[in-house]
Design a protein that fits this description.
Blueprint (H helix, E strand, L loop, with lengths): L18 E6 L3 E5 L10 E2 L7 E3 L7 H14 L5 E4 L9 E6 L1 H7 L7 E5 L9 E5 L11 H15 L27 E2 L15 E2 L1 H9 L9 E6 L5 E2 L3 E8 L6 E6 L7 E3 L4 E6 L4 E10 L5 E10 L68 E3 L10 E5 L16 E4 L7
Helix pairs in contact: 1-3
């Protein structure tokens, strides 16, 4: 089956240096654009698409959704690409929508594929909608944020001019349960190549080089925002307690840590959102807790709260203003369709720019997905101020631990065919 956009179709302007991707995990009706390809209007213009209501990522927990965005940000850390779960209020953006097998049957029919997106060589058509059909993945993979992130980046990648490749781990390649990257070398394209690729011989693709050519390197957006959500400023605390914080940055690469001001100990790092440190015990008295966030560009931001440890009232704290606000000083101190399954065969039946490409959507690698648990337990050291006994502190969570083109050319919907698992 061939899906072809009409000639002379007016699409959004070509991609700017910075690309925004709206990861739409909620239900949404995607309409047949009838010549208008516009994610901001929930419209896609491609022959073969039928207006469909997408249910979103059904069954995923809030933590699953947080982890999904984390994996996508980490994979694209080097590039000026921003992922967000909130629909942008202004400007253009790519959108990823999520559906089950029924949504796939309604939207496209045919064999169920994990990801679908418009094949757009060199990203000539600009922003578009791609589709993650988690319901087409193996049952064990449908709520696996790492697996779904790889699938989503693959569908998105087709709209950026990338093609399926015969490689594991990398975006556009066969899925393997390790880090997700765009690759660092030229690798063979799976099937017949339809696009030219940066710095590679014919029939090869260097994913990272292509994305860099499309969107450029990450641009420093300033420090992350930090807000301590528990405990509250001035709280009276008796017994073990937890510290939680909201930390946000447009890009990945954050290092988030908790320190107790005045204790002779290294800050305790939590490597993953949602950021939390549990079962903390501290010497009695007034204590200032500080959460620090160091971003990938070296910007440091912090937030503080001062609490009273013990049943007796505390004297006024002598350190920190206790207002809980991040200083944000930024001074630096202190995914066509489908993604592969790891079987390496990469068959895709591609016949050209306007044809379907096919491959495997089921992961067979037996190694576990990257664990979202926090770092191992550690101990805050002896209090220099009053010789207190210090505390045991565990970071982590209990369960994770044109362009108006005169001739647009043949842009196609690209997908991968599922193969039966061995």
């Amino acid at each position: 089956m061939v899906f072809v956009l009409g000639l002379g179709l007016l699409l959004p302007d070509a991609a700017a240096a910075s690309r925004v991707v709206f990861v739409n995990l909620d239900p949404v009706l995607v309409k047949d654009g009838a010549g208008n390809n516009d994610p901001t209007m929930d419209m896609i213009a491609v022959n073969g698409f039928t207006q469909t209501s997408f249910p979103g990522w059904t069954g995923a927990s809030e933590q699953d959704k947080v982890d999904l965005l984390y994996y996508m940000k980490e994979a694209a850390l080097d590039f000026d690409v921003v992922f967000t779960r909130a629909r942008p209020q202004t400007g253009t953006y790519d959108m990823i929508v999520f559906g089950d097998a029924s949504a796939h049957a309604s939207a496209f029919g045919g064999q169920c594929s994990g990801a679908v997106g418009i094949a757009d060589c060199e990203d000539a058509g600009g922003e578009s909608i791609s589709f993650t059909f988690w319901g087409c993945l193996a049952a064990d993979d449908q709520l696996d944020p790492h697996r779904v992130a790889h699938t989503s980046l693959t569908g998105l990648g087709f709209g950026w001019g990338l093609e399926n490749v015969n490689a594991s781990t990398v975006v556009m390649g066969n899925y393997a349960k390790f880090d997700i990257t765009y690759g660092s070398t030229c690798v063979d394209i799976s099937g017949a190549s339809s696009c030219a690729h940066v710095g590679c011989a014919a029939g090869e693709q260097h994913g990272a080089a292509d994305v860099m050519a499309r969107h450029g390197a990450r641009v420093d957006d300033g420090p992350a925002t930090v807000a301590i959500t528990a405990p509250a400023q001035g709280a009276m605390i008796v017994g073990p307690f937890d510290v939680t914080a909201d930390v946000d940055d447009a890009f990945g690469g954050l290092t988030v840590s908790l320190e107790v001001v005045g204790l002779n100990a290294e800050p305790v790092v939590d490597e993953r959102p949602v950021y939390a440190w549990t079962n903390i015990e501290l010497p009695k008295g007034s204590r200032t807790l500080r959460v620090n966030a160091l971003d990938a560009d070296g910007n440091l931001s912090s937030a503080e709260v001062t609490v009273c440890i013990g049943a007796e009232p505390c004297d006024a704290p002598g350190d920190g203003d206790g207002d809980g606000d991040g200083d944000g000083d930024g001074d630096g101190d202190g995914d066509g369709d489908g993604d592969g399954d790891g079987d390496g065969d990469g068959d895709d039946g591609s016949t050209g720019a306007s044809d379907e490409t096919t491959g495997d959507d089921s992961g067979t690698d037996s190694s576990p997905s990257p664990s979202p648990t926090g770092p191992a337990a550690t101990t805050f050291g002896e209090d220099e101020e009053d010789g207190g006994v210090g505390c045991g502190c565990e970071a982590g969570r209990s369960d994770r631990g044109a362009l108006g083109l005169s001739l647009l050319g043949l842009l196609a919907l690209t997908r991968r065919r599922r193969r039966a698992r061995a």
